[in-house]
Design goal:
The chain is mostly helical. Helices cover 90% and strands 0% of the residues. It is elongated and about 75 Å long.
Length: 126
Protein backbone atom coordinates (compact mmCIF):
# COMPACT_ATOMS: atom_id res chain seq x y z
CA UNK A 1 0.00 0.00 0.00
CA UNK A 2 2.84 2.42 0.79
CA UNK A 3 4.26 2.29 -2.77
CA UNK A 4 0.79 2.99 -4.18
CA UNK A 5 0.35 6.03 -1.95
CA UNK A 6 3.82 7.35 -2.78
CA UNK A 7 3.31 6.75 -6.50
CA UNK A 8 -0.09 8.45 -6.46
CA UNK A 9 1.32 11.38 -4.51
CA UNK A 10 4.21 11.81 -6.94
CA UNK A 11 1.91 11.46 -9.95
CA UNK A 12 -0.54 14.02 -8.58
CA UNK A 13 2.31 16.41 -7.73
CA UNK A 14 3.61 16.07 -11.29
CA UNK A 15 0.14 16.69 -12.73
CA UNK A 16 -0.23 19.72 -10.45
CA UNK A 17 3.04 21.20 -11.70
CA UNK A 18 2.03 20.55 -15.29
CA UNK A 19 -1.38 22.16 -14.76
CA UNK A 20 0.18 25.25 -13.20
CA UNK A 21 2.59 25.51 -16.14
CA UNK A 22 -0.28 25.60 -18.65
CA UNK A 23 -2.12 28.24 -16.63
CA UNK A 24 -4.63 26.19 -14.63
CA UNK A 25 -6.14 28.64 -12.15
CA UNK A 26 -7.78 26.32 -9.61
CA UNK A 27 -4.64 24.86 -8.06
CA UNK A 28 -6.24 24.82 -4.59
CA UNK A 29 -9.16 22.76 -5.85
CA UNK A 30 -6.74 20.32 -7.47
CA UNK A 31 -4.79 20.06 -4.20
CA UNK A 32 -7.94 19.22 -2.25
CA UNK A 33 -9.03 16.63 -4.81
CA UNK A 34 -5.55 15.11 -4.77
CA UNK A 35 -5.62 14.90 -0.97
CA UNK A 36 -9.01 13.19 -1.09
CA UNK A 37 -7.68 10.70 -3.66
CA UNK A 38 -4.68 9.82 -1.50
CA UNK A 39 -6.80 9.51 1.66
CA UNK A 40 -9.32 7.30 -0.12
CA UNK A 41 -6.56 4.77 -0.74
CA UNK A 42 -6.09 4.50 3.00
CA UNK A 43 -9.75 3.74 3.74
CA UNK A 44 -9.48 -0.05 3.53
CA UNK A 45 -6.20 -0.17 5.42
CA UNK A 46 -7.55 1.96 8.24
CA UNK A 47 -10.69 -0.15 8.46
CA UNK A 48 -8.76 -3.43 8.75
CA UNK A 49 -6.38 -1.94 11.33
CA UNK A 50 -9.28 -0.68 13.44
CA UNK A 51 -11.08 -4.02 13.32
CA UNK A 52 -7.96 -5.88 14.46
CA UNK A 53 -7.45 -3.41 17.31
CA UNK A 54 -11.10 -3.78 18.33
CA UNK A 55 -10.86 -7.58 18.31
CA UNK A 56 -7.74 -7.33 20.46
CA UNK A 57 -9.71 -5.08 22.81
CA UNK A 58 -12.51 -7.63 23.05
CA UNK A 59 -10.05 -10.42 23.87
CA UNK A 60 -8.43 -8.41 26.66
CA UNK A 61 -11.74 -7.15 28.02
CA UNK A 62 -11.10 -3.45 27.50
CA UNK A 63 -13.29 -3.09 24.43
CA UNK A 64 -15.24 -0.07 25.71
CA UNK A 65 -12.09 1.84 26.62
CA UNK A 66 -10.39 0.81 23.39
CA UNK A 67 -13.41 1.89 21.36
CA UNK A 68 -13.44 5.27 23.07
CA UNK A 69 -9.71 5.72 22.54
CA UNK A 70 -10.07 4.85 18.86
CA UNK A 71 -12.98 7.25 18.57
CA UNK A 72 -10.87 10.03 20.08
CA UNK A 73 -7.93 9.33 17.78
CA UNK A 74 -10.28 9.17 14.80
CA UNK A 75 -11.92 12.45 15.72
CA UNK A 76 -8.53 14.07 16.10
CA UNK A 77 -7.45 12.96 12.65
CA UNK A 78 -10.76 13.89 10.99
CA UNK A 79 -10.79 17.36 12.48
CA UNK A 80 -7.07 17.84 11.79
CA UNK A 81 -7.33 16.86 8.13
CA UNK A 82 -10.48 18.95 7.71
CA UNK A 83 -8.78 21.94 9.27
CA UNK A 84 -5.72 21.52 7.05
CA UNK A 85 -7.89 21.36 3.92
CA UNK A 86 -9.76 24.48 4.98
CA UNK A 87 -6.44 26.28 5.61
CA UNK A 88 -5.31 25.21 2.14
CA UNK A 89 -8.42 26.89 0.76
CA UNK A 90 -7.29 30.18 2.39
CA UNK A 91 -9.86 30.19 5.19
CA UNK A 92 -7.72 30.24 8.36
CA UNK A 93 -10.49 31.60 10.61
CA UNK A 94 -12.88 28.83 9.62
CA UNK A 95 -10.07 26.29 10.06
CA UNK A 96 -9.53 27.56 13.60
CA UNK A 97 -13.22 27.14 14.40
CA UNK A 98 -13.16 23.59 13.03
CA UNK A 99 -10.14 22.83 15.23
CA UNK A 100 -11.84 24.30 18.30
CA UNK A 101 -15.01 22.34 17.50
CA UNK A 102 -12.94 19.16 17.27
CA UNK A 103 -11.34 19.79 20.63
CA UNK A 104 -14.73 20.40 22.21
CA UNK A 105 -16.09 17.20 20.65
CA UNK A 106 -13.14 15.20 22.01
CA UNK A 107 -13.69 16.74 25.44
CA UNK A 108 -17.36 15.70 25.32
CA UNK A 109 -16.37 12.12 24.45
CA UNK A 110 -13.79 11.95 27.26
CA UNK A 111 -15.84 13.76 29.92
CA UNK A 112 -17.64 10.65 31.30
CA UNK A 113 -14.26 9.03 31.98
CA UNK A 114 -13.02 12.14 33.80
CA UNK A 115 -16.16 12.10 35.96
CA UNK A 116 -15.65 8.41 36.69
CA UNK A 117 -12.01 8.98 37.71
CA UNK A 118 -12.96 11.89 39.97
CA UNK A 119 -15.73 9.83 41.63
CA UNK A 120 -13.30 6.97 42.16
CA UNK A 121 -10.80 9.37 43.74
CA UNK A 122 -13.46 10.75 46.07
CA UNK A 123 -14.44 7.21 47.12
CA UNK A 124 -10.81 6.36 47.85
CA UNK A 125 -10.43 9.45 50.03
CA UNK A 126 -13.53 8.56 52.09
Amino acid sequence: MIPKICALGLLLAFVGVMLSEVGYKSKKLFSVLAAVAVLSLLGGEISSALSSIMSLGEITGISEIAATALKIVGLGYVFGVSSDIIKELSEPTLASFVTIGGRIEILIVVLPYFVEIIELGIELIK
